[in-house]
Amino acid sequence: MLQVRQLHIGYSGVIATAESLQLNPGDLVALVGRNGSGKSTLLQTLRGSLPMLNGSVRIDEHEITHWSTQSLATKIAWLTAHFSGVSQLKVLDYVLLGRTPYLGVMGHQKESDLALALHALQRVGADHLRDKQTSSLSDGERQLVGLARALAQNTPYILLDEPTAFLDFYHRKQLFTLLKEVAITEQKGILLSTHDLDLVIGFELPLWLVPRDGCIRAQEPMQKREALEGLLI
After folding, report:
1. How far apart (Å, rounded) are the C-alpha atoms in residues 21 and 204?
2. What is the pLDDT of residue 16?
């Protein structure tokens, strides 16, 4: 499990704190809060790209500060809404980048790496895109391909920062459905930051709340948008 204890996050000063949070295999948890509340800062801290100001983040009882970047990349995959594609980079090659933490000194890919990448594309329903240029994808296709790369990375935890930001309602719902299915069937702990409160409620997702006071806390699924918005004030 991924455990957070007495955590203080921020840059030159504390933006938010979290006394106790836990992400288990099989969980799909929504990280919700207003713009600038510290959601992205928390995700960057959890993935080890931003130093914590105080406290503890552990994966399977091991402090992430003791892990190398490569080792941590075998535990946590990362997905944002901002990948716009790279000219001359095909979808399959992009998904294969998820295997980078496992490559040897020479960086050679194995047949097993290719098999995992192809399976990941099939898993998200994007295997027909394998030979397309990443720069030619639609927003919805790009997010599916990004999730395929995260799945090919084969980590127990996936963190997503506003993955539905540029998607229409149909593709937002499709992505939520896929994430919930992946969390349950593959027993991955998935944490996504989102402003899609209606989908969060409709999918009955447990929450990590980031209210204005900056004290991040866990919350059981909510049934009414108004009640959830009230907790963020």
Report:
1. 18
2. 94
Q: CA dist 42 to 5, 32, 36, 117, 120, Å? A: 13, 11, 11, 29, 27
State which residues form the domain around 88: 84-154
What is the pLDDT, as a whole number, of residue 232?
82
Helix axes 169-185 and 139-152, enclosed angle (nearest 10): 10
Q: Does residue 141 belong to any structural domain of this protein?
A: yes
Is residue 44 one of the residues assigned to a domain? no
- Tell me the pTM: 0.91
Structure tokens at 163: 């993955």
211 found inside a domain:
no
Q: How distant, in Å, are the alpha carbons of 27, 49, 51, 123 from that of 41? A: 21, 10, 10, 30
DSSP E strands: which ranges in 89-187?
Answer: 157-161
Cα–Cα distance for residue pair 3/181, rounded to 1 Å: 23
- Supply the Cα-derived Rg of the chain in whole angstroms: 18
Query: From the centroid of its chain, how far is CA 72?
Result: 14
* Count: domains in the chain: 1
Residue 146 falls inside a structural domain: yes
3-class SS of residue 231: helix
- Residue 72: predicted pLDDT: 92
Give the closest residue to 225 by CA, choosing from 206, 202, 198, 204.
198
Q: Would you state the structure tokens that stand for residue 174, as one six-digit string? A: 């499709």
pLDDT at position 106, please?
Answer: 58
Q: What is the mean pLDDT of each run of 10 residues along the chain (233 residues)?
A: 95 92 96 90 94 94 90 92 78 92 73 92 92 89 90 94 86 90 94 93 95 92 88 80
**pLDDT given for residue 187 in this prediction:** 94
